[in-house]
Amino acid sequence: MPAEEVACVIMEPVAGDAGIVVPPKDYVEELYALCKENGILFAVDEVQQGMGRTGKWWAIQHFDIEPDLLSTAKSLGSGMPISAVVGRSKIMDSLEAPAHLFTTAGNPVCCAAALATIEVIEEEQLVEKSRVDGEYAKQRFQAMQSEFDFIGDVRGIGLNLGIEIVKDKVTHEKDQAAGLKIIYQAFAKGLAIITIAKSVLRFQPALTMTRAELDRAIDTLHEVFTDLRDNKIPDALVDENVGW
C-alpha cells in the first residue's frame, strides 16, 4: 500500500489482550520514524494500558515517543462510562463540529469522576506505586518459574503482568485447559483473575491495593499453582465451566 494512502497507524504500546506483550523499544522507534518520514499520523490506544497502569502515566512513555493522537477510557472514569481522545492541537483544532461527536460525551457526572480519578492518582502517587508494586510482583512470579514447569513466561511493566501457562517451556505451547483450571480454582479461593490469549493470566490489580492485599493475591495464585502441579484440580471443573 502506498504511503499516501495511509492516514494513520494505530498501536497499543503494550499489547493487552494479545497476552501482555511488550514490544522491543527499537521496533516502536522504527515504526514511529517510518510514520514521520511518510507524513502518517501515529496514534496509540491507551484504554487498557494508560492512567498509570504500567508505572508511567501512559505506556508509550516507556518508548520515549510522543504520539500524534492518544485514546483513553476505562480507568479514566474509575468505572464510569467516559473516554477521551487527546491529540496535537494542529490535529484537534482542524476538526469542525460535529466531527468529534459522541452520544454520551460530556456527561457531567462522568467528567467529575474522571477529574476525581486524576486527582487521586496524583495525590496518592499511584503511578510510582504501580511501578514499585509491579516490580515486586514480577520478581515474585519470576521466582515461581523454577518451581512450576507450566509457567512459561512472566512479562509486563508495572502492575500490568502476563503469566504464560504452557505445556512445554521450550516450545511455549499454550495450555488453555490448565489456564482455565487456574482461574476457576483461584475464584474458589477468593481471587478473580482471567486468562487472555488462550492461556496467559492477566494480572492487573487495582493500583490502590495495599502491599498486604498484593501479597495475598500472589500467595493465593501460588496455592493454586501448587494445586495444579499436584493434580488437585479436577478436569470436570473445566468441562463444566468452559466459556469464561
From TrEMBL:
One example of the protein's molecular function in GO is:
identical protein binding
Q: Check the UniProt entry and state the signal peptide residues, or none.
A: none
Q: Give cofactor(s), names only.
A: pyridoxal 5'-phosphate
Q: Which domain of life is it from?
A: Bacteria
Q: Please provide the record's keywords in A-Z order.
A: Pyridoxal phosphate
Q: By its UniProt entry, which CDD domains does this protein fall under?
A: OAT_like (cd00610)
Q: Please state which protein family the record places this protein in.
A: Belongs to the class-III pyridoxal-phosphate-dependent aminotransferase family.
This chain's protein is named: Acetylornithine transaminase
